[in-house]
Amino acid sequence: MFKKLMASALALTLLVGCGGGSTASNGGGASSGKTYNVGVAIYQFDDNFMTLYRNELKSYMEEQGKKNGVTYNITIVDGKNDMAEQTNQVENFITQKMDVIILNLVQTSSADTVIDKVVAAGIPLVLINREPLGDNGDESYKGILDNPNVCYIGADARQSGTFQGEIVAELPDHGDINGDGEVAYVMIEGDPENVDAQYRTEYSIKALEDAGIKVKKLDDQVGNWKQEKGQEIAANALTQYGKDVEVIFCNNDAMALGAAAAITAAGRKVGEDIYLLGVDALEECVQMVENGEMTGTVLNDHVGQSHTAVDVAIKALNGEKIDNYYWVDYVKVTK
Ligand code: GAL
């Protein structure tokens, strides 16, 4: 944890430093006038959160280029949720002699293979959004720690799960709408290979239990981050368990949007006879929290994460030393 706090503080310092418009730490000076080729591989364009992330990443990097008199030639490719396709894309980036690669892995289980290729080519690598975990289940991933020019930038998914659970625990009835002494919930999960999905599923419930609240799992299904899957899973659960469903936890907002539609279709009302939680704080979901159509969400700070990714990539391009990990905090979003 201490390590995480330190890394968070470092990330913050970095952001503050760059926000202050200091060209010295940010690609200006000696490198002025240069052109750098930047390869960005996203796991899947068809993902609400990663779309916000990649758009912000591109515009912020172009802005930094203008500020520093440097051209960043940014190529962004869609992995279409297919690891073989993404490996090809990274190999192409290597052939094209990209100066830095920013990578949102399709499968973290393939991290080593891809890291090895990029490191062998001598290209700095900035991993984003999908964290490969070390053997002991923490952030110490050998392929990252062993390579000074490889880093991961993300948010600690445990925190987002904890925040979801805490939002429910902090409700006047602590999520126990029918007063039977336990919170009956449905869990709608993202891609199960993704640590964000694993931790959000685990830590949302852990936060309830840690608050001394009894829980009862009615259903737990994989919706792969997709709105239509979220809707289908919630609709089925509401048909099967009816009024027994007190809380629907979704690992992300896209699935919560689907679940919200299913809740309305079932004639239920968030805040009255059911609670609904997401993660990401998509604009439409923040609006829904405000209107009472969602109980809460958790800000997955795509601005902080994408800016840190760019700042670190620029440091690496300038030959400066980078850390292995940079963390950006989640923020609770309630009415
Ligand atoms: C999560 C985000 C999801 C999805 C996923 C992709 O952090 O909450 O909505 O974008 O990343 O890996």
Task: Name a few traits of the molecule.
Rossmann fold, 44% helix, 335 residues, elongated, alpha/beta, binds beta-D-galactopyranose, four-stranded parallel beta sheet, 2 domains, 12 strands, disordered N terminus, six-stranded parallel beta sheet
Account of the protein in words:
This protein is an alpha/beta fold. It folds into two domains: 188 residues, Response regulator (Rossmann fold), CATH 3.40.50; 142 residues, Rossmann fold, CATH 3.40.50. 44% of the residues lie in helices and 18% in strands. It has eleven helices and twelve strands. The strands form three sheets. Strands 2-1-3-4-5-11 form a six-stranded parallel sheet, with helices on both faces. Strand 4, helix 5 and strand 5 form a beta-alpha-beta unit. The N terminus is likely disordered. The protein binds beta-D-galactopyranose (GAL). The site of beta-D-galactopyranose has 15 residues, from helix 2.
Compact summary:
With 335 residues, the chain is an alpha/beta fold. It has 11 helices and 12 strands.
Task: Annotate the secondary structure layout.
Layout: H1 2-19, E1 35-42, H2 48-68, E2 71-78, H3 83-95, E3 100-103, H4 111-120, E4 125-128, H5 142-145, E5 150-154, H6 157-169, E6 183-189, H7 195-210, E7 215-222, H8 227-241, E8 247-250, H9 253-265, E9 275-277, H10 283-291, E10 297-299, H11 302-317, E11 325-327, E12 331-333
Parallel strand pairs: 1-2, 1-3, 3-4, 4-5, 5-11, 6-7, 6-8, 8-9
Antiparallel strand pairs: 10-12
Helix pairs in contact: 1-11, 2-11, 6-7, 8-9
The protein binds beta-D-galactopyranose (GAL).
Beta-D-galactopyranose (GAL) binds next to α2.
